[in-house]
């Protein structure tokens, strides 16, 4: 059932909220509460009614209702929900007259909501049990996406800018791009064009997220909080001949996320049609490109894979996403599936990528020799294909093998070999990545002369390619992270931050600020940490959480710390930044339990139990064990 109000549309069957064509993030319980309000316009709903309906089968406190109402007000405005003391809450925003009325014969106020959304769960889930339920959560998300994943016929075409080259055969690259551009312009769902000539291939390949945002984001208006995105995609790729086949390796970059793919065909026309068919399937799926929440991305990829199980590019990116969220078991199954399908199709590039994924999983399982054997197989396939790009990529994957073995000489020799292959392939973007890796290795092994040499070499190549400030900041952040001394790390973090203006958003800036604040707090330099974050005019969720951590270290500022953490929790939820939201939930749960307020901590513990990914659980294992131990000491 659809409800429309103001500029919003809400579907109670899928619990999805739209503002225009933009999908907005709501937590599950907030979405169910919104459905309850909209299904009972004009009624004052008591806390008891809300708890019995939205949290059916769960034991939670009234704080859960307060928090959910507060978060809905954060989304729709303070006047959206009116409080009637000792009576309850009433929805205030008028529904469109064309919106369907609620069914008076429904047995539940949430009629139409999927059973998975209403299923009861225990009040106190063990953290590892909660992690095991992650697969069921992703399945529910996949079913949820089924309702909206296909692009609506009236949807605006997706802007797509492309740059395809063939450095060793310039004419082939130019001819293929021209023909591909003509083919894609015939697609109603795409608005295809060539990437601006002022940006080189190396720039677009080395810093795709920066250029995707620069090309597609519109400046904020005086009333907007942030630039708006037109959901554009930047496609960069390389085409080459291998025997009687044409091979295309490409990447698709959206505002937040990047996709990789390899296609092959006997003719240019067949290759163009393959790419067009893939773009028809994936380009309009905005969650793939614009969501920070990799669980939602995963659900969309699972759905796409179920619809096109033989698509190797879709399966490859599903494997990559599972690795990113840390679901090793599912990643192992899908990587094996990718390898078998690629073998059946005699698709060497996807065999190489499957072996890369399996090698990474072997390293996670501390099977270093197995990882090396898998990479040896991948390298042999790259040589069989005579693809210097794939060979260089595989050699770069040996980085972790040599690092675990503490063998800098072997690591340096391997990466220099990859560097020579990248130069042979005329791929300066890959060269920059390899020099970046050599710089990091020299810092990890604390080799002063190597540090200076490789850092200078990397910066010189960045200068030559005219890469944006993001690239330099990433370099300075990671070298700072691997510095031997706090003073050296501080210098590099500051260098990274100086590349951005206050209010400017970039992942490298956010990471550098976090590390520098943590360094300051360890050294008792709270005032400097506070000044660093407060220079941001409109702090995002991550910056609000940093403010919470800083205030918590100050006497008599614990209350302010909790306010900032709660603001971070809400802002992260609304922005789809689930990692920051999880971090804020952990901070709040720890603080509430430390104060003896077990009931106030429970909604945050529930959120973690329902939303934590395996990767996040592993990274926060010690804190979660401490939290669980503390909770056991609290009376039920």
Automatic annotation (TrEMBL):
CDD domains, A to Z: trans_reg_C
Keyword rRNA processing listed: no
Pfam families: Trans_reg_C
Domain OmpR/PhoB-type as annotated: residue spans: 1-93
Coiled coil (UniProt feature): 328-391
Nucleus found in the keyword field: no
UniProt DNA-binding residue ranges: 1-93
SUPFAM superfamilies linked to this entry: C-terminal effector domain of the bipartite response regulators, TPR-like
InterPro entries for the chain: OmpR/PhoB-type_DNA-bd (IPR001867), Sig_transdc_resp-reg_C-effctor (IPR016032), TPR-like_helical_dom_sf (IPR011990), WH-like_DNA-bd_sf (IPR036388)
Keyword list, A-Z: Coiled coil, DNA-binding, Membrane, Transmembrane, Transmembrane helix
Transmembrane segments: 125-149
Protein name: Winged helix-turn-helix domain-containing protein
